[in-house]
Amino acid sequence: MTFKDIFKKSFIEGFSRYDNSPTNIIIVFVIALLFALYIFAAYRVLTRKTFYSKTFNIALPCVVLITAGIILTIQSSVVISLGMVGALSIVRFRTAIKDPMDLMFLFWAISTGIICGAGLAEISCIMSFLLTVILFVLDRIPVARAPKILLVSASGYDSEQSVLDVVKKYCKYFTVKSRSLSNNVMDLVVEVRTSQETELARDVAAIASVNASSLLAHDGEVTY
Q: What is the pTM of this model?
C-alpha cells in the first residue's frame, strides 16, 4: 500500500467517524443557539455607539447558526465539503464594516459557529468568557478625554482674535480647525480642551460680534 492510499484511507475514515445522527445535530444547534444569544446580549451591552445597529446585532446570531450548519454539512461528506468550498468561494460581500468592534463581533460569531459545528463547545465557552472579560476590562481603562469642538459664527473678519482671546482664557490647548469667510461673516471651528465649558461658551456668546456659538462633544479619535 502506497503513502497515497494510506492518506486517502485515513482522510475518508476521518469523515466517516462523524456522528450525523439527528440527536447530535440538534444538540450542536442548541449549543450554537445558546452562544448566539450570548453574543447578541454581549453586543448590546458592550457597544456604546450613538447609532445602535439592531439589524447587525440580529445578524450575529444568524451567522453563528449558519456557520455551524455549514461545518456540520462539510463534516458529513467529502464531496459536499468540496462543493461547499467551491460555492462559497464565488460569494462576494459588498457591505463595508466601519467600526472595528463590529468586525470583532462578526469574527466572534463566525468562529463560534465553526467551533460549535466541529463539536468543540468547550473551546467556544472559554473563548467567549475570555473575550467578555477582556472587553469589559479594556472598556473601563481610562483614556485621554476627547476635546470639544467650538463653533462660532461672527460678523466681521476681525472677530477671530476676540474669540481666541476668550478661548486662551479658559484653555491651555486649542487648535483652529477651519475658517470660513463669506459676506462679512466668519465661521470658525476651534478644537478646545477645558474643564470650564459653561464659562467658555457663555463668554464667547457674550462677544458683541458673535451671532451664534456652540460647544460640541464628539466620539472620534482622542488627541494625546
A: 0.63
